[in-house]
Amino acid sequence: MTVIYPGSFDPITNGHLDIIERCAKKFDKVIVAILNNPSKNTMFSVKERLDLIEKVLEQYDNVEIDTFTGLLIDYAKSKGVSTVIRGLRAVSDFEYELQMALMNRKLDEELETLFLMSSSKYTFLSSSIVKEVARFDGEISNIVPKIVEDAIRKKLKGDND
Ligand code: PNS
To answer: Which domains does the chain possess?
Structure first.
């Protein structure tokens, strides 16, 4: 079975990687789908996010990385996939996730959302919190891969080449 793991991934964290690793073990193929939403203010462009994720996940043979625009149900249909994976960290995630899953089901009743529990090591982790800690020069080396840490530091220095 092939599953889609969609998200903003701005940037990818060890929490996302934990979910992707779990999926790669359980399913034949995982498509990590980065939402391309030009109206959202992101630290990394879609291309930068794609490059980072490709590097971080290069050792996985059954993980594909892609981008999508518009509705997730349409993207899933275009890939011929009917299962979406989302990670749940804490009860606080539940309301938003329930809303999204039910809306997606309303739009396409064939689309099923499966939830995986994040490792307890990462319950506190989000891309936003990583960026905030980095902005104030806090330690992020144990919560994002090294190349992501370097990319964030470079961004914050305003060095975009
Ligand atoms: O990492 P995120 O930001 O929590 O991921 C959210 C994402 C990308 C999965 C969600 O915003 C999404 O699927 N957006 C595409 C637009 C869409 O299909 N919206 C209707 C479902 S609520």
So the answer is: 2-156 (3.40.50.620)
Atom of ligand 1 nearest to the CA of 100: 22
Instruction: Identify the band that residue 39 occupies on the pLDDT scale cut at 50, 70 and 90.
Output: confident
CA-proximal residue: ligand 1, atom 10 (nearest): 7
CA 47, CA 49: separation in Å to the nearest integer?
5
pLDDT tens digits for range 48-106: 999 999 999 999 999 999 999 999 999 999 999 999 999 999 888 999 999 999 999 99
Beta-carbon-side half-sphere exposure of residue 101 (alpha carbons within 13 Å): 17
Q: Which of 8, 16, 49, 118 is catalytic?
A: 16
For ligand 1, atom 18: residue with the closest CA: 71
